[in-house]
User: Fold this.
Amino acid sequence: MSTTESAPQVRVRNPYLDNAKAILITLVVIGHPLNSVSAYLGGALETWIYAFHMPAFVMISGYLSRSFRNDPKQISRLLTSLLAPYLIFQLIHAVLRVLINGSEFSYNLLKPSWTLWFLLALFIWRLCTPLLQSLRHPLAIAVTISILAPLAPELDSTLTIGRVLSFLPFFVIGLLGTPERLERIRDFRHKWVAAAVLAGGFVLSLLTHDLFPVSIFHMSASYEIYGASNIDGMLGRIVVLIVSTAACFALLTLTPKKQYWWTNIGVNSLTVYLLHAPILLAFRYSDAGEGIGNLGTLGLVAGSIVLTLILSRQWVVKLTTWLTNPPIGHWLVKTSD
Assistant:
């Protein structure tokens, strides 16, 4: 933030965080079609990506939520950038499901469609930010909630509450962050350690990903649904939290600091997040992925990167902003003006 005597405060974007979001949203777009691929490499890549890409996104979202106080302007932005797009794209997904596979039309606001869980979860986390910041030991409480919540057999995707509770530690880690702490992570001298963590994670995924379901990293439901006992489920959740946190910090350590030609992908990450899913729905509901081998998986990765680049272009953002960020906040929220 910078101020002058004659001008109001102006937010200065941090290219480092935009670079991190650019990397992560690219991994999001790569990861989603991999779920439909039967190739061994596809499964390894999917497991590796899901181990940290959404935890890191949640962590960054927590960091960027530190100043949230539920004032009218913030609530207005929350409604236009998260809740309104959720309602709009939930309808788009419902219509596309009918057109693609002939399913019966269903518009259920309580059950987020595919990728839309993050919008609803972030909406809830941000509303809870003042409460979380008032706690003495928010991270310890968040970790406890993440481990214990899946003990409830009823925990599922309703209002994405499973992920709200399970991913809460990552949001709180970001919330507890400061510019000084972030700078220490960014400027960590031994980059090779971070590179070894991510590379080692990928090798481990290559060797072991078929021994467990990738859904353990989705963290969206109870241990019972995953077929695990309560003890095994809790131990597995502790391992997932540790592994994902280490990978998140490794990625943040390796993220470049400066502005690059691809930094704008991070600036427009929400647009990419919202638009890529409708485009990939036809692939998701088809059997095309079953015939894709390891070489085809690499082609799918390349295609996903190209899709990310296209959707992040400024002309796409301008053409779709009425869907992704409709300017209706002033109609919904009382202001002091």
